[in-house]
Amino acid sequence: MCYPVHPLTRLNLGVALWWAGEPSAARVMFEVFHTPKKPSDTQPEPAEGKEVLVDELLRIHAYAGLGITLFATSQHARALGILEAVANSAFADAYFFLAFGFIRLAMKKPRDAGHSFAKACNLEKFNMEIRFLIGGIYLLFSSANKAISFYDVVIKERDRTFGAPALLNRAVGHAQLNLIPTALKDIQLVQRLYPEFSKRYRMQVDSLDFQLRVKARKQRAEET
């Protein structure tokens, strides 16, 4: 006997399959939310508005998952169509716009990506994690100048959670721009302002510091 799968279970299955490296199977889970219901499937609206809200949030998050899995399976045009629909809804949150911006960058649409990231920041004005993640996305796509501008905001706020990794990543950004002395100053700031972080991630901090010092020596040797 076949039992119906609860929508939340289906959504979680889709996410799990995505992380297991099965985007095609994940897409099947998300696709159900996108399939219009038959008249016989429709039920009267529940009395509690909260239940309606939860169902709508599930649907929106499933749409976002469907868009991302479609993109991963090279159905780019359809992926953008689904994601555009989510972006125009009232339920799209900051983390959705992060994913949307990432995909737009991957499709070489930097201006559109910038609009998505701006929406994410507007929705979460005081959430430094959003800016930190945007910086990481730009760094991943070798847009060091843009990445640094987002890291600067996090560093200025002295955020307890993201301040130290933002400094470390800003050093990587400066290194991408071949600004080695500036990158080394960032490493020194990490070690001075965040000793606990430097101790916990000593291998990463020391490795980057070593690489930068080697590059600095090569630069000096080339100048002489």
UniProtKB/TrEMBL annotation:
Gene3D superfamilies: Tetratricopeptide repeat domain
Name this protein carries in UniProt: Uncharacterized protein
Cross-referenced InterPro entries: TPR-like_helical_dom_sf
SUPFAM superfamilies on file: TPR-like
Originating organism: Ramazzottius varieornatus
